[in-house]
Design brief:
By secondary structure, this protein is of the alpha/beta class. It has 14 helices and 21 strands.
Length: 427
C-alpha cells in the first residue's frame, strides 16, 4: 500500500460501537450449516421485529466457505471455497448469489437494504489448503506456505494454520483478506481463535487491526473465543470493539452462574467502543431446530438482566423464524435495554452463594439496581440503599414490569423465584 494511503487519517474504530453492539448470530441455531435462504429469512424477521429496538448487526458465523458443513462438528481435510490467492469465499452451493466471484456482496446488499449491518465470522490464520498449495499472496512475491505457522494452530478446527507475522508477506495476506471482505460490504467481523491464548496471538490481533484500518471500510471487530485474560485488558481494548470473556456460552445454569464473576472482574475495563462480551443469548429455537432453550423463563430473565446491567453485547442466537412472543418480549423491553445501552459505572454490589446484586447509574439520575436469587428456592434478596448510593427515600420502578412499585427507605428487598432476578430504577 502506498505510504500516502497508510498515512491517511483513520476514523477511531471505537466510534463504531459507542454502545454495546446488539444483533443476531447464526451459530446457536445453525452451527456451521446456515444457507442463504435461511439467512435471508432470519434477516427479514430481525428487520421487522428486532431492528426497531436496536438490534442491527446480522452475522453469518463459522464455515460459510465449507460446502459440506453438517453441524457443530468440523470435517477435516475437505475442499474449501477460496480464490486463487488463498482467500475464503462463500460456498456457492449454500450461498447461490455468491457464484461467479461475487462473494457476500449480494447478500450484504440485501441485508443493508433491510436497514441492518452485515457481519461474518473469520478464523485466525491462512487456510491449510492454501498454504499446502503455496497459493500466491495477492500483490507480493510470496506464497501462503511461506507465512504459515504450522505449530500454533487451532485445537478445535482444522481449516487454518496460524500466520507467522515475522515472515514477509504475512501482513500483506491479512490486508488482502480484509480488502476482499470490505469490497463485499462487511460491517462487522468476528475473528475466532484469537482470544485464547491471547498473548501468543497478539501479533495476529495487531495484524487484523492494521488490516481493517487499511481496508477502506470501517468494521466492528469482535474477538473470540474466551476466556480473554484480564491482564490483556488494555491491549484488547486498543485493538477490538468486543471480546469474549468465556468459552462458548450455552443454556445451562452452571454456565450462567459462572458469568457473574467474569462480568464483575471485567466491569472496570469496559469503555465506549470496547466491550467485554459474555457471548450470545441462547434463546428460542436452538441446535439445528432440535430443541428450544433449556433455560427456565426466570433464568432467561436473569441472563438478560445480568447482560444488561453489565453492558455485555446483546446478540440473539435462536432461529428467528421461530421467534415466539415471550422471547420477543424478553429481548425488546425498552426500559431494560436502556440499562444495557445507556447506563454507566455498572459494578457488582455483593455476591454470596445464594444471591447477588449489581448497581449502575442511569443517564438521568438515580440508580439502577439488579437483584439476583442464585439459590434453588424462592428467597428474599435485599440491598442497603446507602451502598447503592441512595440517601433517604427512593421511588422504585420495576423495569421488567414497566411500572412503579412504591417507596423504599434504608433498604430495598424483593422476593425472587429460584434463579430469578429483578431490575429496578431508584430515584
Amino acid at each position: 500500500m502506498p505510504a500516502a494511503a497508510q498515512a491517511r487519517p483513520q476514523r477511531n474504530f471505537r466510534d463504531l460501537a459507542p454502545r454495546p453492539p446488539m444483533g443476531w448470530n447464526s451459530w446457536d441455531s445453525f452451527a456451521a450449516t446456515i444457507t442463504e435462504e435461511q439467512a435471508r429469512a432470519n434477516a427479514a424477521v430481525m428487520a421487522a421485529k428486532l431492528l426497531p429496538h436496536g438490534y442491527d448487526v446480522f452475522t453469518v458465523d463459522i464455515q460459510w466457505y465449507e460446502p459440506g458443513a453438517t453441524g457443530f462438528e468440523y470435517r477435516t481435510g475437505v475442499e474449501l471455497a477460496m480464490d486463487g490467492n488463498g482467500r475464503l469465499l462463500p460456498a456457492p452451493n449454500r450461498f447461490p448469489s455468491a457464484a461467479g466471484g461475487k462473494g457476500f456482496k449480494p447478500l450484504a446488499d440485501h441485508v443493508h437494504g433491510l436497514g441492518l449491518k452485515f457481519g461474518i465470522h473469520l478464523m485466525r490464520g491462512v487456510p491449510r489448503l492454501a498454504a499446502d498449495r503455496n497459493l500466491p499472496i495477492l500483490g507480493t512475491k510470496y506464497g501462503a506456505g511461506d507465512i504459515a505457522d504450522r505449530v500454533n494452530i487451532c485445537p478445535w478446527n482444522s481449516d487454518m494454520y496460524g500466520v507467522d507475522m515475522s515472515k514477509p508477506g504475512a501482513q500483506e495476506y491479512y490486508d488482502s483478506v480484509f480488502r476482499l471482505i470490505a469490497s463485499w460490504g462487511v460491517d462487522f467481523v468476528k475473528v475466532d481463535d484469537l482470544s485464547r491464548p491471547y498473548h501468543r496471538n497478539t501479533p495476529e490481533v495487531e495484524a487484523v487491526r492494521r488490516a481493517i484500518d487499511r481496508s477502506g471500510r470501517p468494521m466492528i471487530l469482535s474477538l473470540s473465543p474466551g476466556e480473554t485474560p484480564l491482564d490483556a485488558a488494555e491491549h484488547v481494548a486498543n485493538h477490538a470493539n468486543m471480546w469474549r470473556i468465556s468459552d462458548d456460552f450455552w443454556d445451562e445454569w452452571p454456565l450462567l452462574l459462572a458469568q457473574f464473576k467474569r462480568l464483575a472482574d471485567w466491569a472496570p475495563h469496559l469503555r465506549p467502543g470496547a466491550w467485554p462480551d459474555a457471548d450470545m443469548l441462547p434463546l428460542g429455537l436452538l441446535a439445528l431446530g432440535k430443541r428450544r432453550t433449556r433455560f427456565t423463563p426466570d433464568e432467561q430473565r436473569t441472563m438478560m438482566t445480568l447482560w444488561s446491567i453489565a453492558r455485555s453485547p446483546l446478540i440473539m442466537g435462536g432461529d428467528l423464524r421461530a421467534l415466539d412472543a415471550e422471547t420477543l418480549a424478553l429481548l425488546t423491553n425498552e426500559e431494560v435495554l436502556a440499562v444495557n445501552q445507556h447506563s454507566s459505572g455498572g459494578r457488582q454490589l455483593f455476591r454470596t452463594e445464594q444471591s447477588a446484586a449489581w448497581v449502575a447509574r442511569p443517564a438521568g439520575g438515580g440508580r439502577y439496581l439488579a437483584l439476583f436469587n442464585l439459590g434453588a428456592e424462592p428467597a428474599e434478596v435485599s440491598a442497603d440503599l446507602s451502598a447503592v448510593g441512595i440517601t433517604g427515600a427512593a421511588q422504585v420502578r420495576d423495569l421488567w414490569a414497566r411500572k412503579p412499585i412504591g417507596v423504599a427507605r434504608g433498604t430495598f428487598s424483593a422476593t425472587l423465584p429460584s434463579h430469578g432476578s429483578g431490575l429496578y430504577r431508584l430515584t
